[in-house]
Amino acid sequence: MSGGVYGGDEVGAIIFDIGHQSLRVGYGGEDAPKAEIPTSLGVWEDPNDSIDSSQQTVKKQYNIDVTAIQFRKEDMEIVSLMKDGMIDDWDMFERLAEYTYKQRLHALPEHHPILLTECPWNTRLKRERLLEMMFEKFNVPAMYICKNAVLAAYANGRSTAMVVDSGATHTSAVPVHDGYVITQGIVKSPLAGDFITMQCRQFLEEKDIELVPACLVASKDVVREREPPRWIRRSGPEPTSSWLTYMVRELLQDYQMNCLQISDGPYDEDTAAALPTKRYEFPTGYNDEFGSIRLMIPEALFDPSNVKGVGASILGVGPLVTTSVGMCDMDIRPSLYGSVVVTGGNSCLQGFSDRLNRDLASKTPPSMRLKIISANSSSERRYGAWIGGSILSSLGSFQQMWLSRQEYEESGKMILDRCA
């Protein structure tokens, strides 16, 4: 290391891709993350007797990762450390990072530079806090913070692209030009994975289907289609409502990924009824065939006009892209339409890219060539930003971009200006 610049040695960089649903983490240069850990943690209070027995100090305890969260505790609440795509609870994030290094990566933070992703609307204050935590608390040798939309574009071999990211809490259209986000062109909508999960829950509850997570079922009998389930509840402490909501959401997400499909064109009852049905069995043993509803629920992503309670101001995925392109300079519009990159966990819904292609084809000016870039495998779409970070951190030309500990000690938070 010379002149305060981190040279990047043989030790691989660690990539932290922080999303609302989960934290994807692994080593730079690899094809996929080593671990995916939920960003919702189990939190409960443990009263510790202090030296003076009359005083009781209450210490917060955390359950981290899938298995620990599923463990039923009477007073354990499930809390998310994220809000609007940004880190909201720093104490929880610190615990999650400690757990990740020790239990999942078995690595020492001081040995590896770290590349962190952030949403394009992250605030300066939160970036500074992240920089401070990584250098002061974890003693990393070097770090870099990069916008997840830019990394998703890199993962698909583009430095200029229109990145359509549909995740858990929102779907966003982010224009990227030469590796920089065009901030005034960002458009986002709250219609995303969690919204579809809510629609699924409404529909299933209307049909009187009992939503019980698998970990509460001790045993069940095989029943015929649509017959009432026969099952026995597992004994144990009564869980909190936030824990139950979280576990039911997991079940609904499984139903979502297995059953739902996005139709090629605007939803049509007759076309939907002609498609083959899909059977799904719930943890209680209740099973049914699902037909047109498979296409009706996710239709809201592309055409929110028929959904109750959704205002006219909320845009479907197609208009989201055209609005975003319209906010950018005339001269870069053709290159944005020429590489529309689809990424995010919610984009793994069957038919997402085909429908987007069809919706945009009818709205794209005839002088411009439209090209939708969507990775074939769902894991590549889901881990788009992480894969981009993995590629970027292993490039020789990137090694001089790291913000080193020496620079941080000399200049403080000013060095953040180098992170585009």
Summarize the structure.
With 420 residues, this protein is α+β, with helices and mostly antiparallel strands. 33% of the residues lie in helices and 22% in strands. The mean pLDDT is 92.
Structure notes:
The protein is of the alpha+beta class and 420 residues long. The chain folds into four domains: 1-39 and 86-150 and 384-420, Nucleotidyltransferase, domain 5, CATH 3.30.420; 40-80, no CATH class; 157-190 and 314-374, 2-Layer Sandwich (Nucleotidyltransferase, domain 5), CATH 3.30.420.40; 193-302, Actin, Chain A, domain 4 (Alpha-Beta Complex), CATH 3.90.640. It has helices spanning 66-70, 90-105, 124-137, 148-155, 193-206, 241-259, 269-274, 293-296, 299-302, 317-326, 333-337, 352-361, 378-382, 384-393, 405-411; strands spanning 14-18, 22-27, 35-38, 40-49, 56-63, 77-80, 82-83, 86-87, 114-118, 142-147, 161-166, 171-177, 180-181, 187-189, 217-220, 231-233, 278-281, 287-290, 340-343, 372-374, 403-404. The strands form six sheets. The chain has a six-stranded mixed beta sheet with strand order 3-2-1-9-10-21, sandwiched between helices. Strands 11, 12, 13, 14, 19 and 20 form a six-stranded mixed beta sheet that branches. A hairpin with a 2-residue loop joins β7 (82-83) and β8 (86-87). α10 crosses α12 (352-361). The longest helix has 19 residues, at 241-259.
